[in-house]
Structures are given as structure tokens and as C-alpha cells.
Here is the input.
Amino acid sequence: MSDESALREELCRVGASLYARGYVHASAGNLSARLADGWLITPTDACLGTLDPARLARLDRQGRQVSGDTASKTLALHRRIYDAAPEAACVIHTHSSHLVALTLSGVWSADDIVPPITPYFVMKVGHVPLVPYHRPGDPAVAELVAARIADFAARGTPIRAVMLERLGPNVWHRTPAEAMAVLEELEETAKLWLLAQPRPTPLAEAQIESLRQAFGARW
Here is the structure.
């Protein structure tokens, strides 16, 4: 099996896993991966639970489709994330329920949609800024996301996720499995924040510093 064949299979496995566990529904959400000479991305309006490796859209370095079904309309955003975050090799977008609910009820702040309430959120996810609502597929979102990536990189705290208001998270990492783990931890933290009453106190700065020293947490 070629590296690209294995990556196609892995994207479909991750899509099926996310669908089976309710992170995506119907035809919501999309996945992509960086190739040496372009990208793979899920087709427009595809159900992530029933992806076919052979029908994933393949695009060249100029963004021209060379095979597969018609690429998702979020391609421009995915490409901009890859440009802005060189370490990213996979991008996942979902409409995860607790994260969308959080934007409807009110996020913690524009720079951090949830506070650092658990050590694994700090270690595995990090800061997650809010991107104000735009219609799905609006090309303006790609530039807003790129600006947020650059902003946090300049602070010395590179990010692995942004939250699109009323739509859902975009997360990225080196592999589909690692990107999925970021998504899972982010959605679980949003769930804890929404369910916990009274709202929990964030970790203290000394506790966060300990996570930086021990695990290289990017907070």
C-alpha cells in the first residue's frame, strides 16, 4: 500500500469513528490531509461515516482538482490553515454539539472559548480563539483564521484549533489520529464547562507553568 493509499484509508477511518460517536452528523464536517504535491479532502456534502477512499478529492499544489468527487467548499479555509501552520498535515472540521452550544450560550473569551480547567486540555489542545460568524464557505473566514494563527504564534503559544461561531471547530495536527485527539479533548472540555455548576475555577498560573515544564504545554 502506498503512503497516499494508507492516508486515504486513515481519513476514512477517522471520519467513520467521528460519525459513529456523534461528533458529526448527516453531511456536516470535512477532513483533509497534506500531500507532498497537493492535498486530499472529503467531497462536498459527503457523510463522514461512509467515505470511500477512492472518491476523496485530490488536488494539486495550485488547488486544481485532479481526481475524485467534487472537493468540499471549505477547501480555501483548509489550504489557508496549511499555509499559516506549517506543522499541520491534517485538518478536521466538525459541528460538535457542545462546542456549537458553547458559542450560542457565550464563550469564556474571544481568545479562549473555554478556560484552562483540566491539565489535558492545556497539554493537548491549548488556546482556542473564536472566529465571529460568517456564512459557511465564506472566503473571508480563511483570512481571519490565518490572522489568529499568526497572532498566537507571535505570542509564543502556537494554536491547534479555532472555533467558528455557530458552526464548529477546525483543528489540525501532524496526523489524522492526532487531529482527532485534539478535537475529542476540545469537545469534552466544552461539555465539562457547560455541565459544571457552579463553573469550575481555571487552573492557577503555577499549575499551568508546571505543565509547561513537565510536558511542554503551549499555553
Q: What stands out?
A: The chain has one domain: 3-215. The mean pLDDT is 96. The helical segments are 3-20, 75-84, 97-105, 119-124, 140-155, 176-195, 205-215. The longest strand covers residues 30-35.
